[in-house]
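# step 3/5: fold
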Amino acid sequence: MAARNYLSYLFNPLELLRTKKVLQVNPTVASPRKEPEEVKIFIHDYDISHFLVKELHSVSECYPYLNSSTITWINVDGLRKADVEDLGNHYGIHNLITEDILSLGQRPKMDDINGLIFCVLNMLYFNEKDSTVEAEQISIVLGKDFVISFQEDASRDVFNPLRDRLKINSSKVRQNGADFLFYSLIDMIVDNYYLVMEKLGEKIELLEEDIIRNANTRTLAKMNMLRKEMIILKRSISPVRELVNGILRSESNLIEEKTEKYFKDVYDHIIQANELSENYRDMMMNLQDLYLSNVNLKMNEVMKVMAVVTCLLAPATVIGGIFGMNFDIIPFAHNTTGFYFIVGLMVFIPLLMLYIFKRRGWF
């Protein structure tokens, strides 16, 4: 690959924007939010013997389910400020929670305000095309007999297995309360972290093979890209441990005692995910050391070849310099076979040196 192609790969403007996005952590500056073109609201209303799934056209259609005797899951895909505020006012969601729902780049956390449990965390996806980790912020509110989830992207999430389980009368979700639904949502988000980390692990293994086979500038660029994705992964996973621990320590009546053991299982999973992300970060550091070692090894090999070539040419240079002096009396200078003798000597000595170098194991 030509040098300019390397430079275009290394100094890609899109990668610079990626770096800025990864490092943007100022919580005091409100992130610009565009109103979504489409907002989808789905409601799942159920108990042991009853199940209803319906797509709503406005948030006002959610209001009758507030005081129902069944469990209600309201999933809002696409956040429109007016809709979130209206829904929050009707369901008693505090203004601070509404503000966190509408803010971008929130650190994963949980709050217990006005008798509601609120948590915000990231759903992670792995983009196979660009080999990047994409994070989507999701906010979940647990109340008495209802759960409300707010998503950024209306086109994807990780909750399809849960939706299928809700259709089964004998499933644990149908037989338990809203706190179990709340647990199930968080559990699926955490379990999806492992799928993303598995994809990153495959990329790291391929990168390790590339470094061992042929470490070059392109390999260094891939390494830098993966390190940025590890930053996003670590930033999304690490605070979730505190989030789940906060739920376990909460004395809210919304979390039943029988559901706490399920949150303890999520806590164990997030600890393992956090440790795995630490291992991946250590692997990236080791790959960086491996890359530098390979670069130094290649440089040493080049220097060795140049040193051997210099040593092999030294006898011919000395002999040529001696017989090129401006003297009248030089042995073999006026002999008819002198030229061939000197050339043979110039060839014989380097061959002898090569033999000695080989015997000593110098190359």
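# step 4/5: annotate
The beta strands are 40-46, 51-56, 71-77, 109-113, 116-127, 132-143, 146-151.
# step 5/5: archive (pending)
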